[in-house]
Amino acid sequence: MRVVLAGLSTVDLVQRVAELPSPGEKVQSLAVEVAAGGPAANAAVTVAALGGEAILLTVLGAHPLASLARADLEAYGVRVVDALPSRVSPPPVSAVSVRDSDGERTVVSHNAADVPDFPASSLVDEVSGDCVLLDGHHPALALAVARRARELGVPVVLDAGSWKPVLTELLPLVDIAACSAHFRAPDGVLEVPVVITTAGAEPVRYSTVDESGTVPVPEVEAADTLGAGDVWHGAFAYGARLPLVERIRFANEVAAERVWHAGPRAWVPAVREMRK
């Protein structure tokens, strides 16, 4: 399996705490880890863990913090293609707190708001294989990759976590929109052949031109929900050759394995055992 993933990479500073702090409160963390984050980056780690070839088209740059993210991604088998390798500004940083008792998390992130425009056409030669996964955080990149995928007949999956202005132009190029329960599109815009909605531990809903239904999520005791949706999207992209319902079920199983493990990469060895 070869999956091209285009979108956001961050540096995640993850602190595990007994309780999430209230405003003005200071708490002592139980553990701290630093890892690459972001929807596309976490999905790429998932594809690589499952045995696929993961090519991540993103923006990291030359800042020392970017080196941390790049090293983490490459250590877990992701090939990183950086659109702005000489950019000196720091990459987006996410401050994450994870509650030890149930894995619930809070995230404060700047995302890609300050990343300048760049010639995305220079990256489209990487587009090929079984599936393309986009998160829409770098609009020009998402559009260029989606158009190239459409030319080549490579299916395009959109990780639709939140509405972004680029989606008006991007959605007509998308084959499958995998949406969070909080995703809201303007009326009449979300006309995609397949729409999937995930909602944490609730069953995953899907709708095609011919049918609709739900696929249950395995019941697990959550230890860490950080990036679980990203892992789901990575597993779904990796399962591109499976029938839709089986593909959703597989992604549900992989995401459930992720939330059962505490830590941003603790789940990877278990997911490696789930290769199909």
From TrEMBL:
<dbReference type="InterPro" id="IPR029056">
    <property type="entry name" value="Ribokinase-like"/>
</dbReference>
<keyword id="KW-0418">Kinase</keyword>
<dbReference type="Pfam" id="PF00294">
    <property type="entry name" value="PfkB"/>
</dbReference>
<feature type="domain" description="Carbohydrate kinase PfkB">
    <location>
        <begin position="193"/>
        <end position="266"/>
    </location>
</feature>
<dbReference type="InterPro" id="IPR052562">
    <property type="entry name" value="Ketohexokinase-related"/>
</dbReference>
<feature type="domain" description="Carbohydrate kinase PfkB">
    <location>
        <begin position="3"/>
        <end position="182"/>
    </location>
</feature>
<dbReference type="GO" id="GO:0016301">
    <property type="term" value="F:kinase activity"/>
</dbReference>
<protein>
    <submittedName>
        <fullName>Sugar/nucleoside kinase (Ribokinase family)</fullName>
    </submittedName>
</protein>
<dbReference type="InterPro" id="IPR011611">
    <property type="entry name" value="PfkB_dom"/>
</dbReference>
<dbReference type="InterPro" id="IPR002139">
    <property type="entry name" value="Ribo/fructo_kinase"/>
</dbReference>
<keyword id="KW-0808">Transferase</keyword>
